[in-house]
Design brief:
The structure is a homodimer of 184-residue chains. Chain A has nine helices and three strands. With 184 residues, chain A is mainly α. Chains A and B meet through helix 1, helix 5, helix 6, helix 7 and helix 8 of A and helix 1, helix 5, helix 6, helix 7 and helix 8 of B. The first copy, chain A, binds a DNA duplex (30 and 30 nucleotides) through helix 4. Chains A, B: This is HTH-type transcriptional regulator.
DNA sequence: TTAAACTTTCAGAAATTACTGAAACTTCAG
DNA sequence: CTGAAGTTTCAGTAATTTCTGAAAGTTTAA
């Protein structure tokens, strides 16, 4: 497993970005390597290509499996475990969004809901609760919406994205057509 | 500046989440404190309320100003600097999205564009470039689309979000109405 | 100009996070 | 059962990030 400079630069970049995307350097490198490799590869190949310890690769693959970005494969007649990126780029991106939503929004939503059940004890708490309610509603809105969007599936989403700023016009259109119900 | 347990739990939670949202613990706590405080407060108040060093507060506020989440204020006749969260929750969320797009997507887009200009040197690179192109297109799509969405402004975006899964129907509607142009 | 009241900076300490590699574990063939 | 070929775990170490606090900087009043 020899990497050309082009591929190496891509992998190293993904490593650097990894931490910004919610996983660590080596995990980023591993997933990059798996995405660009045509064939499934073994953990040893990975350790070798990235010059990192075998143990580290094992931990990284474990995490990537938790993210459902990598899957295990067995070749017939071999005992070795082979790994490959699972699904298309599109599906992988979806998984990353979903996982990040779980990590970045859900815990906060839970906490906010709990806090908002309590009666404010004084003026400061009362003012704070108004703000917390706003944060809660915004987060909940984003969270629900992103779930809906994922349900649309690639084709429709792609249409929606290509629509770009045209979205505004379509919304106007919808308002005019459905001018019967009194929706604010 | 005495914090009630309710407010403290919120602030501490934001501290923990901070690192997942792209800044560190104290920066998260500071922004939480500013959001829930009715009046602008001084850096000393912050250090005091959060039991962290004055220097740390200074660095945190500097970073928050870079994110444009916090603004400086002067009270007439006083020399002290007061700070407050700038804008509504909505605006702050917008800033966070924007900043994160810059940090998490733009560098990768730049790198991918560069790599894709090079001719693949062998089969492996050729296969890899196909994948990289897919990643590039997806990132670019998301990036452009999120820019468009921000341009829509809060009111329209809110409509769009409330539409939820109804988006699919509106898209169908649009397709039927504009059935003249041959858009795939 | 001096000093008081305030702010920022940054070297080093503390805390956190990531990585290594040896030992332990698993699975299978003979 | 034994050992070979593979995998995982985890204690300790290395690297990175964050935080402190003292020193240096700034601004204003007198």
């Amino acid at each position: 497993m020899q990497l050309t400079p082009m591929l190496e630069s891509f992998i190293m970049h993904f490593g650097e970005m990894g931490s910004r995307w919610g996983f660590n350097r080596t995990v980023g490198q591993i997933v990059a390597l798996l995405v660009i490799s045509e064939e499934p590869i073994t953990a040893n190949d990975i350790a070798d290509a990235l010059r990192i310890s075998r143990g580290n690769v094992s931990m990284g693959l474990k995490e990537l499996q938790a993210w459902r970005l990598v899957q295990l494969q067995h070749k017939p007649g071999e005992r070795k475990e082979y790994f490959q990126a699972c699904g298309s780029i599109w599906e992988m991106a979806n998984r990353v969004f979903e996982e990040r939503r779980k990590r970045e929004m859900d815990p906060t939503l839970t906490l906010l809901r709990d806090i908002l059940l309590d009666k404010p004890a004084n003026g400061a708490e009362q003012h704070a609760q108004v703000k917390l309610q706003e944060i809660h509603d915004l987060l909940e809105g984003i969270s629900k919406w992103s779930t809906e969007l994922q349900r649309l599936g690639p084709d429709k989403l792609s249409t929606l994205m290509k629509l770009g700023s045209g979205v505004g016009k379509v919304l106007d259109l919808k308002d005019k057509l459905l001018a019967k119900p009194s929706n604010s």
